[in-house]
User: Fold this.
Amino acid sequence: MAWIWIAVLLLITFLYLLQQLLNSNKKKKLPPGPRGLPVLGNFHMLGKNPHQDLHQIAKKHGPIMYMRFGYAPTIVVSSPDAAELFLKTYDHVFCSRPLHEASKYIGYEQRNIIFGQYGPYWRNMRKLCTLELLSNLKINQFQSMRRTEVGLLISSLKGASKIGEIVDVSDKIASLNVDITCLMVFGKKYADKDLDEKGFKAMVKETAEVAAVPNLGDYFPYLGVLDLQGLTARMKTVAKVFDDFLEKIIDEHVRNKEDHKQTKDFVDTMMAIMESGDAEFEFDRRHVKAVLLDMFLAGMDTSSTTVEWVLSELIKHPQVMKKLQKELEDVIGLDRMVEESDLDNLEYLNMVIKEALRLHPVAPLLIPHASMEDCVVDGFHIPKASRVIVNIWAIGRDPKVWDEAEKFQPERFLGSDIDLRGRNFQLIPFGSGRRGCPGLQLGLVIIRFLVAQLVHCFDWELPNGMLPSDLNMDEYFGLVTTRAEHLMAIPTYRLHK
Assistant:
């Protein structure tokens, strides 16, 4: 075994020296950045929370920073002005994705929307998904389903409140999101055993982990086949579990396609497009499964994680919780639950959600972009095939933009026209430009509705006499960055009915 590692090290060293020789005559001005180690580059500078490490490094080297991870030249962007250059001014250059081993195996050779490389196929598929799956019309068709499922959660929590039960809020919210996402995407709820013995939440967590862990195959292409970290084996296992599940669902829909459903789920819509032949590009079961898996994974994890962070901040700041409850009482009263039609009248709720997403963006480094050609940005040479990492966690803490940036202060948005939709680069939790999240509107509806309902229907107390100031707010980094610990709390029902 030792000789394999020696051979690998010699190969890497040779390729590194060759790369240095090829680059020795290039005197173009790269962005500033920390010196890296031979072969490894700057990997040694990252710990368990890379977004926080990159934030600290950027304080020394600036908002456009050059780093190298293995053989991958990487640009780290850490300010609103720099983000606007990469995501708006030069969006046409940086709108692709780097090669990604996890998406190769799990995303059907990067046929999905999230990790798909930019080109005619990706443009057409995104347009199709935006029009057919994520339009306001489609979102509104599932409104009664969301009301029913959230109502079931409220009933469950109401039962817990009668006996003073400590509730695993994180688990409750995640389970609700599994049900809502399954109903929208697949047409019905599924039990954990329908997917795998580990269940939905465990498999989604595993997917997020293998997609986020720095993979030698992504940074040292010649080492991918060796699978030295065992990641490829894990990816193949995850891919098979989801592929078998999706095949079963598609087969069910094919057998039952004559059923006259009142609301067509995403599988119905995608299969109808495939069978019609109207897609104007290659479109078979692989493409259907890639998009369905995108919708399922993105829809399930991001919304529930955001709701967790919002509720955590509200519990940690009781005065903000009381102010939001007062708004809900004034607009809705204590005789009924919140309806989605109420959401546009809840100004303080929107400020609370903006502030939580500023401090806790669920994808703190977004998904990496890739440069499709050489480009000069702010006087710096950005080589073709560079990875571009936009650190929106750092942007949300930029002291040049945010006063007392570490504090949770929703009032900072009072009278502000900053929104979440990618136009204001101080706050871009859903990204911006061509690669902005196509599910933004659906995500915001679910987040706003669920937060409003949980806060309106219940007071929340931490267990075992814990003070709000003692609530642990540590992060667990992944493709979606969650709370390190589950949120545990005791609900007390507060409505009159």
In short: The domain at 2-493 is CATH 1.10.630.10 (Cytochrome p450). The mean pLDDT is 91. The two ends are 69 Å apart (CA to CA).
